[in-house]
Amino acid sequence: MNNSLTKEQIKELLPHREPMLLLDELINIKKLHSATAIVNVTKKSFFVQGHFPGQPVMPGVLIVEAFGQAAAALTANGLDKKTYENKLVFLMNIEKARFRNPVIPDCKLELNIEAIRSHGRVWKYKGEAFVNKLKMADAVWSATIVDRK
User: Fold this and answer.
1) Domain total of the chain
2) Residue 143: which H helix or E strand, with range?
3) pLDDT of 75 over the 90 cut
4) Rounded distance, CA 37 to CA 50, Å?
5) What CATH number corresponds to the domain at position 22?
């Protein structure tokens, strides 16, 4: 178990690939408890071209997706490899998500996530997203680990 993960190490844990792999790094990892994900939002990010031309903003649904990816990476990194091998993590629900400020390129989006509880294959998480210490969004969500088909 590492205290931080590079994008290449995250690829070993998650099935996501470009352009949908949103995480660039996972840092400050506390095994199965919390971590900070880094998403470098640039003018070259795939979603910026059409959302919105001349005034680019990272879509809120992709912030939620990044929260989910960060939670999946945190969980997979803390489990024995045999536990998550040939498995996928699916978002089950989003209890609440609030978008407080637009995420505008070029910036470093920091997602502070925490595992609130787990029950069998179902995990519940909460997270807050920041750019330069300004809160951009927060959410509470659940995910489940399922067999890969």
Assistant:
1) 1
2) strand 134-147
3) yes
4) 25
5) 3.10.129.10
